[in-house]
Every structure is written in structure tokens, then in C-alpha cells.
Amino acid sequence: MSRRGIALALRFMGLGWYMAISIIFGIVGGWWLDRWIGTKPIFTILGVIAGSGVAFYGVYKMILPLMGNNGTNEP
Max Cα separation, the chain? Predict the structure, then answer.
């Protein structure tokens, strides 16, 4: 495998970790708020949604440089 292939594989592995950590922090934060306030799954669900949103936005921003022309349609 070439250096470029290894670098690309490491970048994608980092993206996976970024997604997992963002979603896990959202779940744990929502779960903690649910326990603290005394509600049941509402903040946990909101945490999953917020964590997923942060994860996908971050992955989008990290992948833009790999797409060439920074994701623009200009020639």
C-alpha cells in the first residue's frame, strides 16, 4: 500500500472515531440531563439527534478537501 493509501485509510479511520465520539457524548450528555432533571428519554433522544448532527457536519467539513475544488462546482 502506498503512503497516500495509508494516509487516506487513517483519515477515514479518524472520521469513524469522530462520528462515534460525537454521538456517544450526545447520548451520555442527554442521559446525564435526564437523570439530573428527572425526565426519562427526552434529553437522551435530543442528545442522539444533536450528536448525530455534529458528527455528520464535522465529517462533511473534513471530507470537503478530499473532494477536489473544495466541493465547489467551479471549473
Answer: 55
